[in-house]
Specification:
The complex is a heterodimer of chains A (about 400) and B (about 230).
Chain A lengths: L1 H14 L1 H39 L3 E6 L8 H4 L6 E2 H8 L4 E16 L2 E10 L2 H5 L4 E4 L4 H6 L3 E4 L1 H8 L9 E4 L2 E9 L14 E5 H8 L7 E2 L1 E6 L5 H15 L10 E5 H44 L1 H9 L4 H38 L7 H27 L3 H6 L2
Helix pairs in contact in A: 1-12, 2-10, 2-12, 2-13, 10-12, 10-13, 12-13
Chain B lengths: L2 E14 L2 E14 L3 E5 L6 H8 L7 E6 L2 E2 L5 H10 L1 E4 L11 H12 L3 H14 L15 H13 L5 E5 L7 H16 L3 E5 L3 H4 L4 E6 L2 E7 L8
Helix pairs in contact in B: 3-4, 3-5, 4-5
Classes of the chains: A alpha+beta (about 400), B alpha/beta (about 230).
């Protein structure tokens, strides 16, 4: 009986192909838009999650307040960065701190053979790689003894490796020139991708902190550092560590109660959370806008089904006269609406996925096509069919057979 | 002899803006198995309303209607649909075939609502189309055949569930006299096979094919004449 009704629905749809196609089109566009928007939104969420995990977990960043920002005498006098290696060592003694990495950075011209490349050079300690959970794909990292003796060694990021050495030359052991000074490449860093600001994290060179201070960046940085990365041993401890770092540094820098600090502490996790929240909101918004077109598609189905019921009043009368029950008529029209929306949905999924791949191809933006989003689109489309098909179908089922038979 | 139809003290009122409008008044009628009855009367006499009630498309306001031993005046719509599907066969003036479906599917349609499988539906429909002389046209559409042939298809459809009662409402109203004769001949043959037939008509020569003529006027039966004995099934 069900298969017979499915056949009837198919017949009825074939009887007016253009109209069926146009009705379906509303559904196709709605579902296509939902699938595409969800793919783009989830893609954005995915990229944010990637850059967050590339940052390292449970991190605080302590930065020197730039001149003019802090109100203290030190920065107002323009004496440069206020944080020192001693500050960093003191922070490492605090409870719940699992890693500390002081660093300083500047951009510099790098040369290998005839290739030259302008990149960011970070001077730091070996713990930097641990704190940022950054691995090497080749070679090995420098050690504390390199820090003590300020050796000229370097770890290079993927982008730098590609631009200086290309694909054919193995960078390990080669000598590059940073600001004219020769450095031996010890290792190549793993790929990190973009950070939250969209900057390429692989476009970087890491050298020992002391080497950077004494041999690269000049006297201004000889004992100070730009920033200190602090890793807490758990997300729960992070706020307490933040507090402790604040009071410790204020004490060490002899800042009086009530006056501004000459440094500031940023909670990267909180920052990451808010970025994730933003993209989530964005993808929800995209989904909501796309859903509106799905709704409009559903109303289109309802409209056509109402016309169809009116046009086929006599047919309904005939069917009732030869024994169709109310629920048989209800099923017939409901099935027709559902078949239209499901076929429209399938086409819409194909178009949505195709569109997402096209977006990915044209803009390089990450898109995520998940089975979930397709299942949701499918479920919603079927519900739209039932919801908007139900009223016209019930109208058909409630017709009086005598009046329906007499209808011209 | 078993009664296929027993109608007792039946009233039907319509609610209009001007109040209750009585259409049928204390109608009493018994139709025996195998009878062939013509119901006649001018427009507005109530014969169509009576036909709708006999066909379980409408319910009486009061009174009893017993069809094949069952009180159908008390049934709800689903049960009425079942009666229309299995106990009654309908033939209409306007044929009322589904124009989108072929003849085979048209004839088999009632079996869809009976819940019969496709193979059997088609086998039975094919058999009945043979019987009404349209075995070669199973794949045609209703608009590809003549009016007389369409009415034959409608009769085949009405017979598909072996009904106890065949109800025909002006079955020859849209046909020329020669084709009308052929259709009435078909009804005659079916009656001789034992099917009880009730035909509503206002044409005397059509009514003359029946064994009994019942005349309505102003909602009452005013005449009930038997012209032939009830045919014995052969």
């Amino acid at each position: 009986m069900f298969s017979a009704m499915l056949g009837e629905a198919w017949h009825a749809m074939g009887a007016n192909r253009l109209r069926t196609f146009l009705t379906m089109l509303g559904m196709v566009i709605g579902v296509g838009a939902v699938v595409l928007m969800m793919a783009v939104g989830q893609g954005a969420q995915y990229s944010v999650a990637q850059s967050i995990s590339s940052m390292g977990s449970n991190l605080l960043i302590v930065l020197s307040a730039p001149p003019g920002m802090g109100g203290s005498a030190r920065s107002a006098s323009g004496s440069g960065p206020s944080l020192t290696i001693n500050d960093s060592e003191a922070i490492a003694e605090l409870d719940n701190v699992s890693g500390v990495a002081p660093s300083t950075n500047s951009s510099a011209q790098v040369i290998y053979g005839s290739n030259n490349w302008n990149t960011s050079v970070i001077g730091t300690t070996p713990s930097y790689l641990d704190v940022r959970s950054w691995n090497l794909v080749e070679g090995y990292a420098f050690s504390d003894s390199d820090i003590r003796s300020a050796t000229r060694v370097a770890l290079i990021g993927q982008t730098v490796a590609k631009n200086l050495f290309g694909d054919d030359i193995d960078p390990i052991g080669k000598t590059i020139r940073i600001k004219q000074s020769p450095f031996v490449v010890l290792g190549v860093l793993d790929r990190k991708g973009q950070n939250l600001d969209g900057r390429d994290q692989d476009d970087t060179i890491i050298v020992p902190l002391t080497t950077a201070q004494r041999k690269l960046f000049g006297s201004q940085f000889s004992t100070t550092v730009r920033m200190i990365m602090v890793q807490a041993d758990s997300a729960k401890a992070l706020p307490f560590v933040e507090q402790d770092v604040n009071s410790l540094l204020r004490q060490r820098h002899r800042i009086r109660e009530g006056s501004d600090s000459d440094f500031f502490v940023r909670n990267l996790t909180a920052l990451a959370d808010s970025a994730a929240e933003t993209t989530k909101t964005m993808s929800l918004l995209l989904g909501a806008i796309a859903s509106v077109s799905l709704l409009v598609g559903g109303i289109g189905i309802m409209n056509i089904m109402l016309v169809s019921v009116t046009e086929r009043t006599r047919e309904i009368g005939i069917r009732m006269a030869i024994g169709a029950r109310e629920r048989d008529i209800l099923m017939q029209f409901l099935l027709e609406a559902i078949v239209i929306s499901i076929i429209g949905c399938l086409i819409g999924i194909v178009i949505g996925v195709g569109g997402a791949l096209l977006v990915n191809m044209l803009t390089q933006a990450a898109v995520v096509i998940s089975g979930d989003s397709i299942m949701i689109a499918f479920g919603v489309a079927a519900s739209v069919g039932v919801f908007f098909g139900f009223y016209p179908a019930r109208m058909a089922a409630r017709l009086n057979p005598i009046e329906a038979l007499r209808y011209q | 002899m078993q009664n296929v139809i027993v109608v007792r003290n039946l009233f039907k009122d319509y609610v209009t803006a001007a109040g209750l409008f009585p259409v049928l008044k204390e109608v009493e009628l018994q139709i025996d198995k195998g009878d062939y009855v013509a119901i006649m009367g001018p427009s507005g006499s109530g014969k169509s309303t009576f036909m709708n009630i006999l066909g379980c498309l409408d319910k009486p306001s009061s009174g009893e209607y017993i069809l094949d031993g069952h009180h159908v005046d008390k049934l709800e719509s689903d049960d009425l649909a079942k009666v229309r599907n299995q106990t009654i066969g309908f033939v209409f003036q306007g044929f009322n075939l589904l124009s989108r479906s072929n003849l085979l599917d048209n004839v088999a349609l009632p079996l869809v609502y009976t819940g019969v499988e496709k193979e059997e539906r088609h086998a039975r429909a094919r058999q009945l189309l043979e019987k009404v002389g349209l075995g070669k046209h199973v794949d045609s559409r209703p608009n590809q055949i003549s009016g007389g042939q369409q009415q034959r298809v409608a009769i085949a459809r009405a017979l598909i569930n072996n009904p106890r009662l065949l109800l025909a409402d002006e079955p020859t109203g849209n046909l020329d006299s020669k084709t009308s004769e052929e259709i009435m001949e078909l009804f005659g043959n079916l009656n001789r096979e034992g099917i009880t037939i009730v035909v509503v008509t206002h044409e005397l020569d059509i009514a003359a094919h029946a064994s009994r003529q019942v005349r309505f006027l102003d909602g009452r039966i005013v005449e009930d004449v038997r012209t032939h004995p009830i045919s014995e099934p052969v």
